[in-house]
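Researcher: Next sequence.
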Amino acid sequence: MSEIKRTLRPGGYLEMSTVDLDLVNMGSRARKAVKDLKVRLHHTEDAQLSLWNQGDAFLKLLGRRGFESIQRCVVALPAAGRISQSQDSTHSGRGGSLSQKEAVMATVEGDGDVPSLADLLRNRNEDDQLDEQITKTVAKVGRWWYSTCYEEAIKNPGETDVASLWETPGLVREMERQGTSLRLLICSAQKPDCAKRRTASV
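Model: Next structure:
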């Protein structure tokens, strides 16, 4: 943060967005899954990893480093959209959980027959089914972002078959019922035009 402030021109803006480690409206499965992830993060050898919610930590750092005009917005990203009945039968043997590939796949640019988020928003109307597709796509992006920020940080080089938090049996279903969401902070701050003088003028 000090280096960012040093390289910004006076009056320049810093913009950032981050997803917090803790979820909102967690059920029992989600609490246990997040707690297990925190334990794994705590036992890593990387002293840089923090169990703080990143949004709170960044806001505190911005104040300490002397940034001004701090503007923030906290957005709740759905952790799970409405899952169709066809997926109920497909994944019934695994407690209704999605595979890691399905759970963390970000369909921002579309994939075959799966419409992209941009397409869904462009063609949006009063159709409830389309709203469900948008919610589901946003949830996939959010879960991918969360996994990239936290689960990838504790993988050892070469590990590919490590179970994801989102593969916990019944977790996505519980999140759908509870209305669980990811806490996304969008923030901007300004470097002061004039640096504070460290000495008093005589």
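Model: The mean pLDDT is 75. Helices lie at 2-7, 28-42, 54-64, 85-90, 100-104, 117-122, 128-151, 171-178.
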